[in-house]
Amino acid sequence: MSPAPGVLGRLRAAVRREPLLPVLVVLLLALAASYPGFATVANVRNIAVQASPLIIAAVGMTYVIMTAGIDLSVGSMLFLAAAIESSRALVGGPTAVVFAAICVAGLLMGLLNGLAVALTRVPALIVTLATMQVFRGAGGHITGQQNIDLPANLRGIGTGNLLGVPTPVLIATAVALAGAFVFRRTTFGRYVQAVGSNPDAAVNAGLPVRRVLVGAYALAGVLAAVASLTQTARLGAVQPSIGQGFELTVITAVVLGGTSLFGGRGSIGGTVLGALILTTVQTGLVFSGASPYVFDIVRGGVLLAAVLAAAARWRHLARALRLTGRRRPSPADATTA
């Protein structure tokens, strides 16, 4: 028998599993046909490097949104982590010590978000909106809102490579693979899905809902810090504008990748493809000479469409189950049960 049917079957299965894959391929082909300089090795490499911090942060955000939560502070966490990296207490230290300290700082920021969400009835939207301002203000205080150049030893993570593959791409790949493994193969990953799918059922089943929520936000904080390390190393400096609007790009990448804003459904692979599509669109706009504000329109339009689609899906499900008029329980309700 010809192997072609088997190959076609695997391709169909891959497309069903990750429907954004053909979208990315068509987008790349269209841009390559439109702009002669787009399909160069240097440009593809540049897209991959630019997408790396977004992929890293979006993996953490996937876990948060999977719990039916949200984290608006991820851009400010990235900025505060960068500010701490450039502070006098760390900037002259050994590279490994600086990187470890930044990851710990990200963990503490994520824990603050997670504890506030898990232990109170305040919605995650409000909690992270407040911490967004706190973290951004703290970063501005440390840097004095000035550009601060980083020493050469802290730039290697952004400019180095292994066997020709840029270090940021290697880190993003490792984070995505680890995130997918945890999501599919570990108890924590199953708990995240259970909490997002039905918080009340998770509580009744005896799942540690509060700890799962805290863990998801803590993971998002650590990965925001890792994204900060790759971003600042690539730029070679800490800038006051770093991370501004980053939270919306991260959330858009996650929902574009198929993660439900109502929680309980999503994939790391979809998130990675969503991040790559957004970065490719942004690069294509640069090649076209379009205004940079067009990307804001695209990003906002994608996010709005995802919100409307999620709302329509829930209304349809509610009608099917004769639940119209009843409020869907939130993770905050479950944690107080």
What does this structure look like?
The chain is mainly alpha-helical. It contains 16 helices and four strands. The chain is globular, with a radius of gyration of 20 Å. It starts with a helix and ends with a helix.
Quick gist of this model?
The chain is an all-alpha fold.
CA-atom Rg in angstroms: 20 Å
- Largest sheet: spatial strand order: 1-4
Low-confidence runs: none
- Taken in chain order, the helices and strands follow as HHHHHHHEHEEHHHHEHHHH
Our count of helices gives: 16
Q: Biggest sheet, open or closed, and with what strands and sense?
A: 2 strands, antiparallel
The rough form would be described as globular
Tally the beta strands.
4
As a percent range, the share of helical residues equals over 70%
Mean model confidence by pLDDT: 85
Could you list some keywords that capture this structure?
16 helices, mainly alpha, 2% strand, 337 residues, two-stranded antiparallel ribbon
